[in-house]
Amino acid sequence: MVAAEPKVTKVTPQKLTQWKQQGRQIAALTASDYSFAKLLDAAGIDLVLVGDSLTMVALGYETTLSVTLDEMIHHAKAVRRGVKRALLVCDLPFLSYEDSKSQALHSAGRVLKETGAQAVKLEGGYPAVTEIVTHLVERGIPVMGHLGLTPQSIHNLGLRQQGRTAEARQRILDQAIALEAAGAFAIVLEHIPSNLAVEITQSLSIPTIGIGAGPNCDGQILVTHDLLGLSDRQPPFARVYADLRTTILQATQEFCEDVREHRFTID
Ligand code: KIV
Hints:
- This protein is an alpha/beta fold.
- The protein has a single domain (13-242), classed as TIM Barrel (Alpha-Beta Barrel), CATH 3.20.20.60.
- The protein has eleven helices and eight strands.
- The chain binds 3-methyl-2-oxobutanoic acid (KIV).
- The site of 3-methyl-2-oxobutanoic acid has 12 residues, from β6.
- Residues 30, 49, 51-53, 91, 146, 188, 190, 211, 221, 223 line the site of 3-methyl-2-oxobutanoic acid (KIV).
């Protein structure tokens, strides 16, 4: 008899709100392939994001602008096969949602149908974006927002910290409130002052997930390649928990030497 797989209670968007109410912090990481996704899920991560940062860390481009919807779907399908418990969210890439509500619905619908992701994330909080969020949420697609440094706007905003003037702070706070009203279930806050992140977190009933936004959001997200020391370039707010770059270089060099020195044996 084949043993039944243990039943896993999947993390849902509603669970994240419950955790915020209980003061239980949310731990989130990115993934772009099956092997890493499986390890993150086994280690107990709460949310896995197929982030468009994969454009740089997995595909080798300079910015997130290059990735296509088809490529995001390809990666998200692989990640889905590795993730059993965590909430799986997939980024909508640059120009796959900004043009119209129907473009956004078509793209987000493809992501949910073809990959099995439970939600999409999109960047920005201007009225056109919040209208898109409402459109998707009303049609049954859970949406996570992303404010502050929004890398898809790199040519407008650069990669510097956002929300440094009183006006910019107010704009980001207003956008966060508007995204919640539009039905977003959580908001990523990237590279903003810590005290602004606190103000936003206290103003919302949905969770905030910070990256470079201080320790007092409802959760934290990192790019897994940064966490594991695998990135070529890390943002100033990255936290490195392991040096896999050195481990991989050493293992590969050792293998090369063994082969070349006729030391490589198979038992
Ligand atoms: O693409 C990504 O990895 C992200 C995180 C930085 C939140 O959006």
